[in-house]
Amino acid sequence: DAKTTQPTSMDCAEGRAANLPCNHSTISGNEYVYWYRQIHSQGPQYIIHGLKNNETNEMASLIITEDRKSSTLILPHATLRDTAVYYCIVRVANNAGKSTFGDGTTLTVKP
Amino acid sequence: DSGVTQTPKHLITATGQRVTLRCSPRSGDLSVYWYQQSLDQGLQFLIQYYNGEERAKGNILERFSAQQFPDLHSELNLSSLELGDSALYFCASSVEGRGIYGYTFGSGTRLTVV
Lengths: 111, 114
Hints:
The structure holds 2 protein chains of 2 kinds. Chain A has no helices and 9 strands. In chain A, the strands form 2 sheets. Chain A has a 5-stranded mixed beta sheet, with no helix packed on it. A 4-stranded antiparallel beta sheet of chain A has the order 2-7-6-5, with no helix packed on it. Chain A is globular, with a radius of gyration of 13 Å. Chain A is 0% helix and 47% strand. In chain B, 0% of the residues lie in helices and 53% in strands. By secondary structure, chain B is mostly beta strands. The N and C termini of chain B lie far apart (30 Å). In chain B, strand 4 and strand 5 form a beta hairpin. At the A-B interface, strand 3 and strand 4 of A face strand 5, strand 6, strand 9 and strand 10 of B.
């Protein structure tokens, strides 16, 4: 699976959009981009995934660049409860179990 | 409540002992994944089962073993425990074996080896 690079930490003001970047320059054509988050020591929570098109669900939007070498997770109106570690993962569809979570980005939403 | 149930929530045991962690997947999910999260290692994939069969193996020590039963619940057995095995152990499940729609994680078992 491709390696990902994320900033160690980011801050965001409550009510503003949080844009979390992820670089995956070695991504191959059959690899998906997944985002999870982990609030404190709770179990990670699936947020969204995509292959090459932009995706949106009730939690967030995922923007993938045309060359697929990077992506951005957007939380449109961040709240204090969105403070968490956000993990960007790249993997092939058939390699479910071997997702590498990496260190992620610690997002702190401030009032 | 994610629908994935892990028991016990906390476990304190001595070095050299053996423990069993239990996971009940979300209703309808056939695949179970085990992860270990320690302070210095992050989230590490251990093993995956799909409908009772081992599907993928990660960085699982030989002292550790797992199985998935006909009712789809899974157990992770940790033996000859060492201080370094202290960690959060998460179970996740997915409806099919590829996890293409993402996994649902349980709240974890915190294991402390003293």
